[in-house]
Amino acid sequence: MEIIRSPLSPGIYFVATPIGAARDITLRALDILASADVIAAEDTRTARHLMQIHGIAAGERPFIAYHDHSAPGVRAKLVQMAQAGQSVACVSEAGTPMVSDPGYPLARDAIAAGVAVHAAPGPSAMLAALSVAGLPSDRVMFLGFAPAQAGPRKRMLEEVAGQQATLVFYESPRRVSRLLGELAEILGHDRQAALCRELTKRFEEVVRGTLGELAEEFAGREVKGEIVVLVGRGSDVVAAQEDMQAALVAAMARGSTKDAVAEVAAALKLPRREVYQAALKLEGKT
User: Fold this and answer.
1) Which CATH number among 3.40.50.10540, 3.30.950.10, 3.90.25.10, 3.50.80.10 corresponds to the domain 126-231?
2) Burial group, residue 81, by CB count within 10 angstroms (0-12, 13-18, 19+)
3) Predicted pLDDT at 235
4) What are 108-118's pLDDT values in tens digits?
């Protein structure tokens, strides 16, 4: 594995870092960490350790702590460094710096200031969890950490209960039992879900079942590590699929597949691509 050290053009580089296994990092991420003029890190010790694992010398480059509790002046300083011609690599403690951390405000301010923003994609706990949960991934709503206060948290869950998408939450080990109980109560005990813990790490755990089953299993259970909770679509999606197929069968009996797809998509307010795929299955072409 060759790490390329070459000058980077000025700008902010959002670099995804491993959520567990250190070897999950990309070659481009290593190249950027080796070449950037400045390293902005959620945890500078973690960033230094990761670079050390992969044989990247920190040298005399500045390491600047940039996290949720950083003063606005820190963000302004990073933007000013990029404006002055420096390359700034931004890394979270783990995962993609734009997900559930201060990456967004830095990107927003950099773009407003005319600074180039680059992405070095890679590990993400959300995407890793979707890969192993066994829940639909064609429509996904990422919700991050639910509010700590009971009132706002309940309102949030009520607002998303009817969303026809897989819901993705991050949660701390101390609060996950409470979240599961409230999800079961508000979204329904029979709704399919999965809890993913310590993904890519030694004690990785994926528990699948209904919200009621997960709430019961984790009630009072002491858990550790990083947790992602995923909730599948409600039962009305199944009914909607059945309605779509019935409507397609009737419409296809009257005319062409193209006309049937247009008719059903308009009548049921569904994406045309989704209806077209269903029509192909009915015709036995997929």
Assistant:
1) 3.30.950.10
2) buried
3) 58
4) 999 999 999 99
